[in-house]
Design brief:
Two copies of one chain form a homodimer.
Chain A (H helix, E strand, L loop, with lengths): L8 E6 L3 H12 L1 H8 L3 E7 L14 E2 L2 H5 L6 E4 L7 H10 L3 E4 L2 H17 L4 E2 L11 H5 L7 E7 L2 H13 L3 H10 L8 H4 L2 H14 L10 E2 L7 H10 L1 E2 L2 E8 L2 E12 L11 E8 L3 E8 L3 H20 L23 E10 L5 H11 L4 E11 L5 E9 L2 E2 H12 L6 E8 L2
Helix pairs in contact in A: 1-12, 4-5, 5-10, 7-8
């Protein structure tokens, strides 16, 4: 505990990669602003790195490869964790709390999997855990749930929360690239990693949705609670049909409170062209929230990168440093509702876009419409494009069905039956429509 | 000062109109959530109204027409001001501070004209003034400047910040209505007041821009510092040309930090169709901010109304009530830079849309292009529509000029000269293009 109001607040940091270097630079370059706001200086006193000998563009910072040198330093009151990954980051955060340090972290995986437990443990020690940087880079999304939106009952979240997949989707949609080419472009531009599974399979988005849903619905949401589909199955023709029908096709993270339970899902979705979410392009991200008092609001900005992420980390450091100076820190609340009821994805009701690759025979539309109709799935429109060349050879017709609201289970049953039709060699895509 | 952590926090309110009633309902209906968050109950202990006898849909609240009964009540720690208008709201806020009360206000006029002085005076007494509800309804826009964006040097603000004018503009643009019809529709829908000048002349937007710019640029910005044009001069044809050229035409509030000084202006502007700002329709509002670390971010939502505004007021009450319980409140900072340098609007450089109503004679385009060229204003495109019927009778040609970047002073000089041309009976519109 720091007693004097003139003594500096000490910060230790775990990790000095892209984000860590950004934070170190911001703490140095903005020292005057930060000191003025906090009421006393904030000093970076030690950084855990893998190789302290390596040349870096951050000078005058004490580097160590010994975690204890940061975690047990009595001159450190706030530990900033920007290593990423579940372990050893999680273990280090726990040890820092045991050693009486407040935590600032940008780690979505740790916060999604262990956040509520970490926050509770810290609170028992009178410590706080700040994690604005874990979702949406520098866009203030965690803070609003902790304060600005508190008077609201939140009914839904819809977020384009992974910049890498949004970049790939934007390139597929605007330049007509196929998935593989768009992915390679994202890798070349440094937006996608060599192993891109975390992004393209929606795992990263599910982490972030878990964190947001835990805050929004005051319930303990785990990443495993989230139904998940990636973007690898999208084809250029889906984007063409989407445009024709008046939609964009982002990877959407959805959280909805329904009477039957919480809906939590990450998958590509059609959203109307004129909506704010349809205009989130490239590496930009957006979080849309609906509450009873506030109606619909949306936060938009770059969701990753050294600048935006260090903007959020430094803001959290300032907030904690201020509160350390002003008596005991009142920690954040843990979720009140330990047992949530999840709504199975099979119970979800929405509209659907279904693209079939079919032999161009009379009667196919009638057969498929019949199968759908037997399960009370009615159609709002049907598009047929003839003579489409197929990768697997031959030329076929593509038929697109847009349904009215239907139950997922019924749609999946119908799909099983359609899959067995001889005249339908391939089901192109099934994409949910979120209005 | 409240000493016990179990004693309730007392709130007094000035005004019980649409917003005040919303706040009273929210404090009652959300009492459990609020109490849990604050750590003790928050009670509405008295409300100043004009007529305590009038029937209202808020029960169990003590009403008075005597301001002292609220301002001097020792059981009140927080005064919520939701009367609106400069006086007596301003005087009551001052008296409440003298009486040792923290302030929560939704009053943009008072905060724009007197905010920094009120905040400083309150700070000297260890009191805080919260005003999230004064700009952007429930959208968190004040809070982010106080904390989340603190590590950033803000270079610009662009905001669609008045829902009434945005509704009128949306109706003109999407339904082709003229200004008078769209205004009447907004009045019938309850979005515009009987005397709509505050909205349509951009006065309300200038108040809000002053508040945001004061925070963003750490400078004392007064509403009189803001250059202002309203929306009364826009005609249906401007929206048609805008669409053809790929733009939307909101009333934009702009704050920019340039080497020569601060640019502060409110006027209709062309913004590119694909941008987030171009998709803010109806009574929705949005604030876009650019900072050195965070890049471009945007906040979007309903900027007014009982629900959104009471969402912000209640969040401010919760924040203050929490801090009252945790030792002395550390008040907000006043702007550090008392003397700002303003950039005159005549020095602004931007692109321009100029619509002329002209006799359809050969040579008009050449003459106008010559006048512009003499002042180094070059053209990016020219559109000519022939045979346009005029309100004032006769049929003329309409000619639209889009310029490259040019200085406002040069454009205004050219306009003076064009106005004197016999072949140009009327200058339709001059609209700045913000890319």
């Amino acid at each position: 505990m720091v007693n004097s109001m003139t003594e500096a607040v000490g910060v230790g940091m775990l990790g000095l990669g892209v984000v860590g270097s950004g934070v170190a630079r911001a703490l140095r370059d903005k020292a005057a602003t930060i000191g003025q706001r906090v009421g006393r200086p904030v000093e970076l006193r030690g950084v855990l790195v893998r190789d302290p000998e390596r040349q870096r563009d951050v000078e005058g910072v004490s580097l160590t490869r010994d975690p204890r040198a940061v975690l047990d330093d009595p001159r450190v009151q706030i530990v900033v964790e920007v290593m990423g990954g579940e372990e050893p980051a999680h273990a280090y955060i726990r040890r820092a709390i045991s050693a009486g340090k407040h935590i600032v972290t940008a780690n979505k995986e740790v916060m999604a999997k262990h956040g509520p437990e970490i926050v509770s443990d810290a609170a028992r020690c009178g410590l706080d855990v700040a994690y604005e940087a874990s979702v949406g880079g520098g866009i203030p999304v965690i803070g609003p749930f902790k304060l600005d939106l508190l008077a609201n009952d939140i009914s839904s979240l819809s977020a384009i929360i992974n910049g890498t997949t949004n970049y790939i989707i934007t390139r597929m949609s605007q330049a007509g690239l196929d998935f593989g080419s768009a992915l390679r472009e994202a890798q070349d531009a440094g937006y996608a990693e060599a192993d891109p599974r975390n992004d393209i399979e929606g795992i990263d988005a599910a982490y972030k949705l878990s964190i947001l849903a835990t805050l929004a619905f005051h319930a303990r949401v785990h990443p495993n609670d989230v139904y998940r589909e990636g973007i690898g199955g999208l084809e250029p023709s889906d984007f063409r049909y989407a445009r024709e029908l008046g939609y964009a096709t982002p990877l959407l993270a959805i959280g909805k409170r329904e009477p039957e339970g919480l809906e939590l899902r990450v998958h590509p979705a059609f959203v109307p062209r004129g909506s704010m979410l349809a205009n989130v392009d490239g590496v930009f991200t957006a979080v849309q929230v609906e509450g009873d008092l506030i109606g619909r609001i949306l936060f938009y900005g770059r969701g990753a990168g050294a600048g935006p992420t260090s903007s959020a980390v430094v803001a959290d450091v300032i907030d904690l440093a201020q509160r350390i100076g002003a008596g005991p820190v009142r920690p954040s609340l843990a979720p009140t509702d330990a047992n949530i009821r999840l709504r199975a994805v099979s119970d979800v009701r929405t509209r659907y876009y279904l693209r079939l690759v079919s032999a161009d025979r009379p009667g196919v539309i009638a057969t498929v419409a019949g199968i759908l109709g037997e399960r009370s799935i009615s159609l709002s429109s049907v598009l047929q494009k003839e003579d489409v060349p197929l990768e697997e050879g031959g030329r076929y017709a593509e038929i697109v069905f847009m349904t009215h609201h239907a139950q997922e289970a019924a749609v999946q049953e119908a799909l099983e039956q359609i899959r067995r039709l001889e005249v339908v060699p391939r089901i192109g895509s099934l994409i949910r429509v979120e209005d």
